[in-house]
Amino acid sequence: MSDRLKGKVALITGGTSGIGAATAELFIKEGATVVITGRSVEKGQGLAESLGPNASYREADVMEEAAIADCIGYTTSTHGKLDILFNNAGGPVGAPLEQLTQEHIDYGVKLLLSSAMLGTKHAVAPMKANGGGCIINNSSIAGLRYRQGDFLYSALKAALTHYTRMSGIELGEHHIRVNSISPGAIATPIFWGGSQRANTLSDEENGRKMNKLQQSLARSVPLLKTGVAEDIAEAALYLASDAGRFVTCHDLVVDGGRTSMFHEPSQRLVTAKDHQ
Question: Would you please indicate which residues are annotated as catalytic (active-site) residues?
Fold first, then answer.
């Protein structure tokens, strides 16, 4: 531990599993006080207890603006400020192009785009009052490359990355830095339906799916190894800490080199269907 976030207060959405949980654990090790949000009360409370007194859980569905505002209000009223917001919540969306419905679009926009936009909206006032802050949006290489996710997911992640740049410009004068992280082949439950489905499976079944996923993903990147949630947590730590103090409007790609593989053989492409 090096106390890179000593005295900082962070709010992490989608913080009960995967990247969010790994980031919460790392932030706390580095001295931060962390509020995690999510829809699973059992998992959220259990994780907060395991992380110790500097962690707390607030139930929230980030598809509802009132819930987002409540979490930010809870953080500032409980801890006096908000230094870091990690808009991490997300999951699979969409359908094949010819089967797409307005319901798919509305669901995807709420989950992947407006949740981050509204989180930013409600974080601005306390960050201004605090003299600045750091906002991190969890995007994806699906917003950069073809066939890294379904087309609706990819389009929304591309929009989120662009929104990150635009809001970073808008908020720079208030010393609020806004960046995104674009994970690549990271082994998380999103490949078999996200945390909602993983919560319905046994530890044994989730472990089996994770082992199969890691073996497949290792073949999809030049480094020939699997990216894990902790890799994204380290990227978030860099952006949130003083080490990233001159970084804003930036999309940090963490993908083991996958986006450089413009002509990878088709048999090396890994999709969510391989891990159902």
Answer: 153
